[in-house]
Structures are given as C-alpha cells and as structure tokens.
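Retro notes
What went well: the complex prediction finally ran end to end.
Inputs used:
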Amino acid sequence: MTPTWGQPYHLRDAARRLLDLILPPRALDDRPGARGPVQSAGMSPAAWSRISFIAAPFCDGCGAPFEFDLGPGSLCVACQARRPAFDHARAACLYDEHARDLILQLKHADRTDLAGLFARWLARAAADILPELDLIVPVPLHPLRLLHRRYNQAAEIARPLARMSRLAYRPEVLIRRRATRSQAGKSGDARRRNVAGVFASPPRHKTALKDARILLVDDVLTTGATVEGCARALKAAGAARVDVAVIARVKELTARPI
Ligand SMILES: [Zn+2]
C-alpha cells in the first residue's frame, strides 16, 4: 500500500512544529483517560531545543532522514538493496546524547511520566501511517527482565499511543521466548543472530492477527534487528503489514549489510 504523506509534515515553520509538540493539538488530549498536558513531563525549553526531531523528507522504508526531498515513497540506498522485514519505520528524533539521556530516564529512572510525552512524539512521527493500521504492539521484554525492571518501556509508550490513535492495544500477541544478551556493541549480523527465533506469537492469537496491520513500538532503532525479528514473527502468524515507530533512531542503520 502506498502510504499517504500526512499533513503535519507540510507545516513548514519549524517553530510551529516545536510549539505543536510542547502544546499538542487539543484533540490528542481529549480521549477519555488520556494523560495530562505535556508539560507534566517536566522538560525545560532548553532540553526541548536540544532534541533533533525528524521531519520529512525521510526514507519511506526505514525512516532515515533525507537531505533532499526525493518524492513520496522514496527509499534510501540501504532499503533499495534490502527491504527490512518490517514495512515502514518512523522515528520522532535522532538518537544522540540528548535523546539517549531522556530515554534512559524512562528506562532506568522510573520516569514513566515521560511515556505520555513520547507517545505524542510517536503519534506525530507516524501520523502518515497510523490511519492505515489496526493494532499496536510493544516490543516485548522477557518476563524475567520485566520482573527486574518492573515495567516495559515500550509498552508504557504503546498504551497511550493506542488510546490517542484509537487503535487496539494488543501486547499479548507477541512474546519474547528467551532473554537476549545486550545488543550493545554488536554488529547488525550479530544482533540478528542474537534475536533469531526469540520472538513468537502464541497460536491462540492467529485469528486476531490474520491480515492485521500492526504498529510495533520500541524506544530506539539502531540496526533494526530486534524489530525485524518481531515483524517476522508477526507476519508468520498472519499479519499483513508490520510498521515500526520508535522514539529515536540512529541516523543511518549503518550496521545493516547491503
Ligand atoms: Zn531506508
């Protein structure tokens, strides 16, 4: 399916875009049970200004930002050489030291209040693909790691995102069968080996996944190995399309073989 290029990308004024993020359109907050205003996340204007938000143009496959607009549906060189196992990826910002600091707060400092903020970032970053999707699924943590960390940061973002976008939140359709070693410092190939066969969909969800169009949510996209592992498992279970939305991505998925 050819993705439609959403209106938000046509707001040319960067200041206006930033304002929309600080004070998002009221509609996002009108859902029953939605979290409070964005400011509750307690980010200072200086912290905002350091985040490198990604706006169009970008690769329609992996979401890598482009220097020039190559037209709707354009793919980067890496995606032309090898399409990822997922269909489209969108990222709210570039993964740099500033984004990393924020994400680590969500991950390790119990700043779950940041989750609602990140969900709004993802709603905006994936605005062009969200209307074409049915379900939202977070990248699962292994139960032992969940016990240790007490919450899954991807799920914390996916839940409010599902509410905002009126999509079904279905974390149970994807499980992590074993804990994986840290992906840090591994190449794309090593990461792919590390996650091979790790993700699966329990057979009882086959009906729910048949022809489903899914948005997979994670915090960071580096080589794409984890979300590709998830996408393969969901498609093997019958999903028609698996897209990805993350808070932050590296500029280029350089470790990917092409
Ligand atoms: Zn690409």
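What we learned: The beta strands are 89-94, 135-138, 168-169, 175-176, 199-200, 213-221, 241-249.
What to try next: split runs per interface for comparison.
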